[in-house]
Amino acid sequence: MDHIRNFSIIAHIDHGKSTLADRLIQFTGISDERTFKDQMLDNMDIERERGITIKSQAITLPYQAKDGKTYSLNLIDTPGHVDFSYEVSRALASCEGVLLLIDAAQGVQAQTVANLYLAMEHNLEIIPVINKIDLPSADVERVIEQIDDELGLDSEGHLKCSAKAGIGIQDILEAIVKRVPPPRGNPEAPLAALIFDAHYDPFRGTIIHCRIMEGTVKSGDTIRFMSNSATYRVEEVGHFLLQREKRNCLSAGEVGYIIAGVKTVSDVRTGDTITLDDRPCSQPLPGFREVKPVVFASIYPIASDDYDDLKAALEKYQLNDASFIYQKDSSAALGQGFRCGFLGLLHLEVVQERLEREYDQSIILSVPSVRYRFTLKDGSVVYVDNPAHYPGSSSIELSEEPYIRATLMLPERYLGAVMKLCMEKRGVNSTLNYPSPGRVELLYEMPLAEVIYDFYDRFKSVTQGYGSFDYELIDYRESQLVLLDILVNGERVDALSQIVHRDRARARGLQACERLKEEIPRQMFKIAIQGAIGGEIISRTTITPFRKDVIAKCYGGDISRKRKLLEKQKKGKKRMKMIGQVSIPQSAFLSVLKSDAD
Amino acid sequence: MQVHHNFFISMQKPKSQSSKPVGKRRAEDNPGLYLHIPFCEIKCRYCDFFSVTELSRITDFLDAICREMNLRGKVFKFFDTLYIGGGTPSVLRPDQLNRLLEHLHQHFTISKEAEITLEANPADISVSVMKELHSLGINRLNIGVQSFDNRILEFLGRRHNGRQAIQAIEASLQAGFGNFGIDLIYGIPGQKRNTWIKTLEQALTFQIPHLSCYQLTVEPETPLGQSYKKGLILTPDNDELFELFMDTSEFLEKAGYCHYEVSNFARGDSRISRHNSKYWHHIPYLGLGPSAHSFDGEKRWMNVRSLEDYIQRLNQGKLPMEFCENLTREELQLEALFLGFRTSAGIDLDDFEEKFGWNLWSVKERDYELLLDAGHLKIVNGRLQPTRTGMALADSLALL
Question: What is the count of residue pairs from A and B with beta carbons less than 8 Å apart?
Answer without folding.
Answer: 97
